[in-house]
Amino acid sequence: MQHVLITGGSGLIGQRITALLEAQGKSVAWLSRSTQSQKSFLWDVEKKTIDPEAMEWADAIIHLAGAGVADKRWSDERKKVILESRTHSTQLLFDAIEKAEKKPDTFVSASAIGYYGFQTGPVLLEESAPNGVDFLAKVVRDWEAEVKKIEGLHLRTVILRIGIVLDEKGGALGEMLKPPVAAPLGKGDQWMSWIHIEDLARMFVFALEKTTLQGIFNAVSPNPATNYRLTQEAARAKGKPFIGIGVPEFILNLVLGEMSAMVTGGNRVSSQKIQKASFEYEHPILIPALKDIFHN
């Protein structure tokens, strides 16, 4: 039986991955700051402590931990938390793996398409595209640099750059459909590279199981959509009114501050590399994906 250790396991994505792995008969444990109903090992990133038995137990690690980038307005302190929750947690895992007598053989880490920058226009971006220059792009760059150090410990390492995750229970869809009337953000022509949460969870399991897979892959659907279209179709699937007049950028700037660039900018990101590795999507098309999410 394969033992899989997950950081950030209690989040939406972590819970889906856990359910998929356990359905396959794998043993799953979470790294957590407190004892969970799920089997868990204790760690504390701020105190730089981790149960050494976790590494001895684990055959593979899935690393999802990181403070939510859209949970709070970006003060200098919040920016520090967003960065260090990712880099420091990865450094702690590196140290624990390096010290362990029995090491895991596989390390699969979350990352983000924020690597490419807030606004990259209509160009279809592959994994080799350059790093952006804004705050989140630098966060992702530094995060991935720490993951690559783990690769130096001779673990098979996979990085999945996650797009906008579509899920009924939270994330982008919940925020987009929170107002009484749904509307595009800004001009609405910015690209949104989305992925159904089930496909994302399956992609992590795929990365875990396909022993020839290594390196960086975009975790997005094959069919990105504009903000206008995604909002319109999500409202239709949810049965919510939609108005085609975009929320002005200056209002978004007033409400969100620097964070507004996350929603007024956009990326059109390619999924070709993971598809060539033989990953098959269950929800590659926007409208059927939204119907599945809202059970239509």
Automatic annotation (TrEMBL):
Pfam families cross-referenced by the UniProt entry: DUF1731, Epimerase
Chain ranges of the NAD-dependent epimerase/dehydratase domain: 4-218
InterPro entries listed in its UniProt record: DUF1731, Epimerase_deHydtase, NAD(P)-bd_dom_sf, SDR39U1
Domain DUF1731: from-to ranges: 247-293
Superkingdom classification of source: Bacteria
Family of this protein: Belongs to the NAD(P)-dependent epimerase/dehydratase family. SDR39U1 subfamily.
Alphabetized PANTHER family for the sequence: EPIMERASE FAMILY PROTEIN SDR39U1, SUGAR NUCLEOTIDE EPIMERASE RELATED
Protein name in the entry: NAD-dependent epimerase/dehydratase family protein
